[in-house]
Amino acid sequence: QVQLVESGGGLVQAGGSLRLSCAASGRTFSSYTMGWFRQAPGKEREFVASIGWSIGSTYYADSLKGRFGISRDSAENIMYLQMNNLKPEDTAVYYCAASSDGWNLLWTIPTKYDYWGQGTQVTVSS
Q1: CB count in 10 Å sphere of residue 15
Q2: What does the alpha-carbon distance between residue 9 and residue 94 come to, in Å, rounded to a whole number?
Q3: pLDDT tens readout for residues 86-117
Q4: Torsions phi, psi of 110, nearest 5?
């Protein structure tokens, strides 16, 4: 059974940084795409970034390029999201997700992901 557990959220001032972690277990993820999404109150779940677990290729939401960085430690089965120069509009619950659809295809839509973590709150104060 696949389990995804996020950590690293919290309260940070605008301009600060946070690093989120997603610990994955229950499967070999070499063929998977792993992703980060976020959801602010009253808004739809939004794609942040994705990574091909085997080859490490990455894809970002255009609006977040240059501030956010996705990476993974394949040996430890942990995915990271480094968030820099945070803004109040980055406030949301951040979710990690895993997709078994295809091989490292860097999906951007939530319906392509089979497994989800419980989410971690990120709050950016102005």
Answers
A1: 11
A2: 8
A3: 999 999 999 999 999 888 788 999 999 999 99
A4: -60, -35
